[in-house]
Amino acid sequence: MHGLIIIFFAIAIGFTASGITANLYRLIAKKPESLKARLVYAGVMVVAGPNVLFENAATSFKTKKCSSIAFWLAAAIAGYWSFVLGLFVLNIYVAR
Known about the structure:
This protein has helices at 2-28, 35-62, 68-95. The longest helix is centred in the middle third of the chain and has 28 residues, at 35-62. 86% of the residues lie in helices and 0% in strands. It has one domain (2-95). By secondary structure, it is mainly alpha-helical. It contains 3 helices and no strands.
């Protein structure tokens, strides 16, 4: 039971970090046009990816542009990505 709580906690931490990063990037940055801006965008998307992926999947599902299988596959990928990101954040927190 303890392990399951840690898994859900790590997913929540990862998705929260992803959402904060994605929204801060949207507030600060414009559309990436130069090579440097694209590289920064790619680096930010490593952290912001789960939130962006889930948001795009939910929007597509609402407008009937994707199937339910595609939506749940994207949700599962975003969940696993959030889990890995959350474990990374927890590891940094425990190590200090």
